[in-house]
Hints:
The chain is an alpha+beta fold. It starts with 8 loop residues before the first strand and ends with a helix. The protein is 26% helix and 35% strand. Strands 1, 2, 3 and 4 form a 4-stranded antiparallel sheet that branches. The protein has one helix at 46-62, and strands at residues 9-17, 25-33, 36-37, 41-43. The protein contains 1 helix and 4 strands.
Amino acid sequence: METPSTRSGVLILRVWVESGREDGFRARIIQTVDGQQEPPTAVSRTGDALAAVRTWLDELLERDG
């Protein structure tokens, strides 16, 4: 019988509209995996925000318990 994973993570993506930016917004990203918080980051391009979410999710799914 397989033991369920207790792995967990939180990603907060706070976005606000800001004129004068390439994509018209800024985002602050706060993330944790298994209780380990990474330093906050900021992005202003859609691709960078999507990459941050993908990296966080990949780390959460790949990390050994």
